[in-house]
Amino acid sequence: MQKALSLHPIDVPVALSLVEAPQATFQQISEMLGISSSTAHAAIARLRQAGLVRKENLEVARSALLEFLEHGVRYAFPAVVQTEGRGVPTAHAGPLMCADIVADTPFVWPAARGGAVGPSIAPLLRQAVELPVRSPGVYALLTVVDALRVGRVRERELAIGLLKSRLYPNPALAA
Predict the structure, then answer these.
(1) What whole-number distance in Å separates Cα of residue 3 and Cα of residue 144?
(2) Tell me: the pLDDT tens digits for 53-73?
(3) Which of the residues 39, 60, 108, 118 has the least number of beta carbons within 10 Å of its own beta carbon?
(4) Residue 77 — φ and ψ, nearest 5°?
(5) 11-76 CATH pick, 1.20.120, 1.10.10, 3.30.460, 3.40.1350
(6) Which pTM was predicted?
(7) Residue 8, number of CB atoms within 10 A of its CB
């Protein structure tokens, strides 16, 4: 009998790194995210058991991942909004949503050298504040996931549309 594993917050950025780089190796994932190869390997094992990554390779089960992000991520990994501080923009202030959502105060991941000030939320990846330089594509997707975690209806609908367009760049494949 296989031991049941629970998803960890880090599993979401690992899955997103496979969306951005479908042919990535464990070593490349670890470099993209600033984590160890063994951490990447453990995350992939949990993602496989959850049905979010195919068992035979490192291919993301796109429809399952979209369903989890759309309906489950905010319940599995709720964002706790903290006091205002300096940090890296996320959620509706992230690169994919900031042009469509104008807000007085952006959500941020706490970082002393961050370029924005607003209410802070803990990122799903401890090293997330390094993502804008280390892996801009994963950074952009992770901020969209944060919009699902903290956003209102309008932000969530926009986030879902953005995720669909990134998960299914060719609309004919989405059917």
Answers:
(1) 32
(2) 999 889 999 999 999 999 999
(3) 39
(4) -135, 70
(5) 1.10.10
(6) 0.92
(7) 16
